[in-house]
From TrEMBL:
Pfam family, one: PALP
InterPro entries: Ser/Thr_deHydtase_PyrdxlP-BS (IPR000634), TrpB-like_PALP (IPR001926), TrpB-like_PALP_sf (IPR036052)
Annotated protein name in UniProt: Pyridoxal-phosphate dependent enzyme
PANTHER family recorded: SERINE / THREONINE RACEMASE FAMILY MEMBER (PTHR43050), SERINE RACEMASE (PTHR43050:SF1)
Annotated source species: Draconibacterium aestuarii
Lineage summary: Bacteria, Pseudomonadati, Bacteroidota, Bacteroidia, Marinilabiliales
Amino acid sequence: MNIPTFIDVEKAHKVVAKYAHHTPVLTSASINEIVGGQLFFKCENFQKVGAFKFRGACNAVFSLTDEEAQKGVATHSSGNHAAALALAARMRGIEAHIVMPENSPEIKKKAVAGYGANITFCKPTLQARESTLAKVVEETGATEIHPYNNFFVIAGQGTAAKELIENIGEFDSILAPVGGGGLLGGTAISTKKLLPACKVIAAEPAGADDAYRSFYSKTWVPSENPQTIADGLLTSLGKRNFQIMLDKVDDVVTVSEESIVAAMRMIWERMKIIIEPSSAVPLAAILEKKVDVQHKRVGIILSGGNLDLGKLPF
C-alpha cells in the first residue's frame, strides 16, 4: 500500500494552490487566556465548499491523466467530500457521479446538486453505499476517488498544515480531528517533515472512537454504530491513514459531546466564525485538558463550516 511522502504533498500544493483558497490563520486573545496557551486556527471553514476536503478532491481530480479524466470521477459520500469532488470535477470539465445515503442532510444534497454532479441515492448503510458505487463505476467507467483512503486525497489534505507552518512558523503541537483520517494523515506527513519535534495529536468524539482504539491496540478497529454530533467524523479510519497514524501521530484523545458543543459555541461567540461540530473537536480536547497547551504554541486545523443552521445544538 503506497503511502504519500512530503514530496507528494509539495506536488499537491502546486496543483491545489491554483484552485483552492489560501485560508487565513486566526487567533483569539480571549480563548488563549482561557486555555493558557497560544492557539492558531487554520480556517478551512473558509475553504471552497466550506471544508478542507476541497484540497484532496482537487489534487485527486487534477492528477488524473486526460484519458482517465474523460470518463469522470465517482465516490460515495454524505457530505463535504461529495461537494468537493463535484466542484473539482466541474472545474476540470468532467462528470462527477456521487452516491449519497438518502438520509444525508438536505443542505449537503443541495450543495452537491448545485455543483452539477449526478447523484444516486442509496440506503444509509456502508454496504449499500459501496455496492451502489460499484454499479455506477461499472456503468460509467469513472475513476473512484475515495474520500480519505486515496493517495492523492491524503497528499492534498496535507497542504493545509504545510501552509499553516509556512505562515506561522514553530509549533509545540498541531491538532486535527480524525474521522477517516485523510486530514490527520496529511497533517502528520507535513508536520513531521517541516517540524520534526512538533507533536501531532488527533482528537475524536468518544462516541466514535475507532481511531483511538486502533492507535492504542495497534490493530485497525472499524467504526461500529458511532454516535456523535460531529457527523464528519463517523467513518472508519482508512487503512492507509492507520499506517500513517502508527508511524507519525503522537497521541489520539477522545472528547465528550458536551465538550464538542461548548468548544463550537466558544468559537462562534468569541471568534465570530461559523464552524461545524467536527471542527470543534480539537478545541474540545484542550478544554477537557486532554492536551497540555500551557505556555505552548498550538496549531489547530478547523476542518469545515458546513452545518444545518436550523438545527444548532445551542
